What we know:
- Helix content is 26%, strand content 30%.
- With 372 residues, it is an alpha+beta fold.
- The termini are far apart.
- Its cofactor is Zn(2+).
Amino acid sequence: MKITKELLTLNQDIAGQEIGIPVYYVNCGKDDAPSVYIQSAVHAAEMQGSAVIFQLLTFLPKLGLNTNFILVPNCNPFGRTQRAGEYLQGRFDATTGNNWNRFYHYDESLVTKFLNSLEGSESLNDKANEKRIVSDFRFALSKSIEDLTKGEWGINTAQYLNHKLQSLAVKADLVIDLHTGPSSTRHIYSPDFLVEHARRFNIENIISIPCKFAGALDEASFIPWRLLQQGLCEKGVEFQYGVKAFTVELGSQENICLTQAYEDMKGILNFLNTEGLVTGNPKIDANDITVTALKNYKTLFSKHAGMVEYLAKAGDKVEKGQTIARVLNSLEFDNDRGLLEIKSPSSGIVILHYPSAAVQVGTQLYKIATDA
């Protein structure tokens, strides 16, 4: 096994100084080994994933490896410079308001064009041709990202960052994007057809997402391959290969905990072990896991402005009609509207809540994985 580090230049500041990020490559030394891509902190305040990658780099030399790794522990140098007082404001570009995690490239027509290019090919139902299809389609995906980055009209900063990261991720067979929420419990976004695989991360809550693009890296990674697989199946071609991709939410932002990062690492290694990619990983204590379809993952918006007390915490099980928060309105302290209760519209598990006690009408108070 060999670990190397590259400083990837992303931009320059106004003085011409390069702005870059470290990328760690772990080579297992085996020919034709698959590749795992893991990144963290595309939202700059979401730092726990960086601690997990540190634990991984420390622990990997102790394992048997059947895969190579590309590890990017702090992938957004633009966001980490944007502060308001004591807090990082790295979820959105401070200049444009763009979400740093919503500009990955996806072009559904690319799949159609590639499928059409296979018309008239000789038998595709053998392993050699499957490997060729994988190689050719990966090249097409990579070129489409590169062409967009080099386009005559240019692209915005969030697109540029996302495309540079995606140019690394497109080489991988497994993509894991590490995030955190505001005040959040651990949860994972999994493609609906990979839920049983996602259980192996040993994270208590799984949000099952459809094969529909919404701008994130996991979707940009797995959807083209899923559509290719389905398109080939319609042509009578048995095609087994697909990229697995997940967004893993590791608790709350603006914090790191190395002890918890070690536990998070164990969950990732458990997943990799079940995929045959590592051996010798530490054992886990299996958690009870709840799966919720994305359509049942609900946001509760505030109907009141004021100062909120969150009674239900991230990870709590709540019942329909239960008081989960209370809102103080200082203009109404002299009457019975000075303190208002907020009740849960449904039973379920609190995944996260807004990090501030100051809210307005329309503020996202809670996200709840509701009981179907």
